[in-house]
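[job 4471] stage=fold_predict status=RUNNING
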Amino acid sequence: MIQNEHIEEFLRQAHRVGDAGLTVCSSGNLSWRVGDEVLVSGTGSWVPSLTKDKVAVCRLETGEILNGVKPSMESVFHLGVLRERPDVNVVLHFQSPYATAVACMEDTPKDFNVTAEVPCHVGAEIPVIPYFRPGSKELAEAVIAAMKDHNSVLLQKHGQVVCGKDFNQAFERAMFFEMACRIIVLSGGKYKTLTKEEIDDLETYILGKKTK
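[job 4471] inference complete, writing structure tokens
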């Protein structure tokens, strides 16, 4: 199922994530569903400069490694989200500067809707997951559960995860997530958010349906 052109596209998208500053060195990981198989950035790989020999190919249903490359230790939640969400094909775990600063705040924001782009693209509600060791079963279970009905989550003292139907949608969610957190940080905590009525107005006239 996985062809060389799929791997080349996966590398291109990984490098785009790195070029945008969403991951640094070995932080973060990326996955892409192609039919019944999934490409995942490999253990210890650097997403910004990912190479072919660091791309794992796994069977979606079982997690079986098909090409001998060990996937990221976070692949459990990548595969879990893809199994639970047939509408999703890409999962991105990233650690961008401002969003990660927010993830490490003593008082985590309860509302990220500082601009219309957040409810329209990132999600009107962003679950905040308490700290679990990276790669742990507890973290994987928490991310999978939260993303059954949300497209973006914040991991305390860790980073962020977004998903999308394709690379562009996942990338857009990550970038607007980072933008919202940049506003929150640069405002020094003195920021306004959209009211429920304003969000409902966006859903009615722009989205045409409720956001997750």
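[job 4471] summary: Residues 167-186 form the longest helix (20 residues).
[job 4471] exit 0
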